[in-house]
């Protein structure tokens, strides 16, 4: 049989194989695809396209071997060869009757037969080789496997905040567990990112045994868990908070609540609370815990030996404060308590007491305690504007100090005290620096011109430290002088102390530091003011 390539190129069939010659002209006029088609049309089953391509690309113009002698496909084999296919699998069966037809099984024969049946991808020549060696007739054998498609990665949500913090206590520097700082909630700010969404990915297409693409399945999409007071970005990739609040999960959605609601006590299960919004505590605040926020604080129960701090809002304590000398209550706008004993209370607004204030140190703009039988007993009550009390002191003549003070003057005095403390601290820092400077300077003088540069630089650093602290001390002294010039006398003495029922003996009144009065006998329904430099009782 004539070699089919002879129609295209110079060819020689030799005992060791097929040789072709490709010239530059041949290369320009032909293509490797036209050569492949020629071989396929002639039913050549063992050609080596890679070897042919190498010779074709070199185009040396000499005969070069391209492989073993050509084998031609026996089309009779089609009658004994069946293939069943699915997109991902091809199964062949060779009838034993092909033996009678004297058809010799070879790997190229079977591979070519598969391709004639449309199976062109994933052909397992290793399996076919074993089938030939084992004469596997009348047996279904999987001889080709497609490439399955890869499903795309599902979209997923990354939660950026800790919605359900664990209850592991913090460990301090001494290795002790701080159970009070366990945080059972998470506070967020306006605009803070709560969650991020990664979109689903397209899958990777597969390839069928027929060489055709198999569509992949795209990853499953998910939505951002948008709850109350949250907002998804325009690209739907981030979820942010629309206000300050407490973040929580409900019905698989992230919500931001403006009110932090503690359903029970503030104890070791809840820990200290630091927040920016309003706080509602429906139980009690146990000893040693701290609640701090910018908003309002309402406590339904009582506070025992704890710190309650609202920097910009109101504090309301339903059942009162048992301070034991350790409780501190601060609400910038106001403080309202049922009762308070042995604690510190401060507000820039109104302090309202329903029952009694017992042995407390309290400072407020306006004091209000006019419920029947309400009393201020013991301790110190300092008021900036006016006090309206039902009773001051009690039948046992407990020493009770009530003062009206000029707010501006008080603030200046507080500032003066802060400066004094700072000045004392700087003085303590200066003392060792001064000693070191004297020592280093003396050493430098002794060394004279031979003093090393390192020693000079060290002295320079001590001098800079000393000068910096000394400048701070001088600045503080200057500020103290400015404040002293302002603290001469009260600028506002229009306030009053009103006793609606009884002022008992033991009550000490101090109005602006100008005049003092000790109640000697019971006084009822009186208003105490400064009139012409002394305390006058009206009513």
Number of strands: 35
Query: Helix content range of the residues, please?
Result: 10-25%
**Cα radius of gyration in angstroms:** 48 Å
Coarse morphology = elongated
Question: What is the average of the pLDDT values?
Answer: 90
Q: Assess the beta-strand content as a share of residues.
A: 35-45%
| Poorly predicted spans | none
Number of continuous helical runs? 8
- Helix/strand class: alpha/beta
In this structure, how is the largest beta sheet organized?
A: 18 strands, mixed
Number of structurally distinct domains: 5
Q: CA-to-CA gap between the ends?
A: 140 Å
Name the descriptors:
single chain; 539 residues; alpha/beta; 5 domains; 18-stranded mixed sheet; four-stranded antiparallel sheet; 8 helices; 35 strands; 36% strand
Notes on the protein architecture:
By secondary structure, this protein is α/β, with parallel strands linked by helices. The chain folds into 5 domains: 4-67, no CATH class; 75-145, no CATH class; 156-257, no CATH class; 290-409 and 494-538, no CATH class; 424-486. It is 23% helix and 36% strand. The protein is built from 8 helices and 35 strands. The protein has an 18-stranded mixed beta sheet that branches. α7 runs antiparallel to α8 (453-486). It starts with 9 loop residues before the first strand and ends with a strand.
């Amino acid at each position: 049989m004539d070699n089919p390539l002879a129609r295209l190129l110079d060819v020689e069939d030799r005992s060791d194989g097929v040789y072709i010659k490709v010239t530059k002209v041949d290369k320009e006029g032909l293509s490797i695809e036209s050569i492949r088609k020629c071989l396929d049309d002639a039913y050549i089953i063992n050609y080596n396209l890679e070897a042919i391509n190498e010779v074709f690309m070199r185009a040396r113009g000499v005969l070069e071997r391209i492989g073993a002698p050509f084998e031609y496909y026996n089309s009779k084999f089609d009658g004994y060869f069946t293939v069943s296919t699915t997109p991902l699998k091809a199964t062949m069966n060779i009838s034993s009757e092909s033996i009678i037809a004297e058809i010799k099984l070879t790997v190229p024969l079977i591979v070519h037969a598969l391709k004639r049946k449309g199976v062109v991808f994933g052909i397992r020549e290793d399996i076919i080789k074993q089938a030939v060696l084992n004469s596997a007739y009348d047996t279904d054998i999987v001889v080709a496997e497609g490439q399955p498609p890869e499903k795309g990665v599902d979209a997923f949500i990354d939660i950026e905040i800790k919605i359900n913090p664990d209850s592991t206590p913090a460990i301090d520097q001494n290795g002790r567990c701080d159970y009070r700082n366990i945080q059972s909630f998470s506070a967020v700010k306006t605009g803070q990112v709560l969650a991020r969404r990664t979109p689903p990915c397209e899958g990777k297409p597969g390839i069928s045994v027929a060489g055709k693409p198999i569509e992949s399945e795209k990853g499953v999409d998910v939505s951002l868990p948008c709850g109350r007071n949250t907002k998804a970005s325009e690209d739907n990739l981030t979820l942010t908070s629309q206000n300050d609040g407490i973040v929580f999960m409900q019905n698989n959605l992230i919500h931001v609540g403006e009110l932090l609601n503690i359903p029970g006590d503030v104890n070791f299960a809840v820990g200290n609370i630091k927040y920016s919004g309003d706080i509602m505590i429906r139980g009690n605040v146990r000893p040693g815990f701290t609640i701090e926020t910018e908003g309002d604080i309402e406590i339904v129960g009582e506070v025992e030996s704890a710190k309650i701090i609202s920097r910009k809002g109101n504090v309301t304590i339903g059942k009162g404060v048992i301070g034991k000398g350790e409780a501190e209550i601060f609400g910038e706008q106001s403080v309202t308590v049922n009762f308070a004993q042995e604690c510190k209370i401060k507000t820039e607004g109104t302090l309202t007491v329903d029952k009694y204030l017992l042995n407390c140190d309290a400072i407020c703009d306006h004091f209000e305690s006019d419920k029947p039988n309400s009393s201020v007993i013991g301790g110190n009550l300092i008021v900036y504007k006016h006090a309206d009390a039902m009773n001051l002191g009690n039948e046992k003549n407990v020493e009770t100090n009530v003062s009206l003070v000029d707010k501006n003057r008080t603030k200046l005095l507080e500032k003066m005290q802060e400066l004094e403390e700072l000045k004392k601290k700087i003085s303590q820092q200066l003392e060792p620096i001064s000693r070191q400077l004297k020592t280093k300077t003396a050493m430098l003088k002794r060394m004279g011109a031979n003093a090393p540069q390192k020693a000079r630089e060290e002295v320079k650093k001590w001098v800079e430290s000393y000068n910096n602290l000394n400048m701070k001390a001088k600045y503080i002294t200057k500020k103290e002088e400015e404040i002293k010039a302002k603290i001469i006398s009260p600028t506002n003495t229009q306030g009053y102390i009103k006793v609606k029922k009884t002022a008992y003996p033991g009550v000490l009144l101090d109005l602006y530091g100008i005049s003092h009065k000790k109640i000697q006998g019971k006084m009822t329904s009186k208003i105490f003011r400064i009139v012409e430099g002394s305390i006058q009782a009206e009513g």
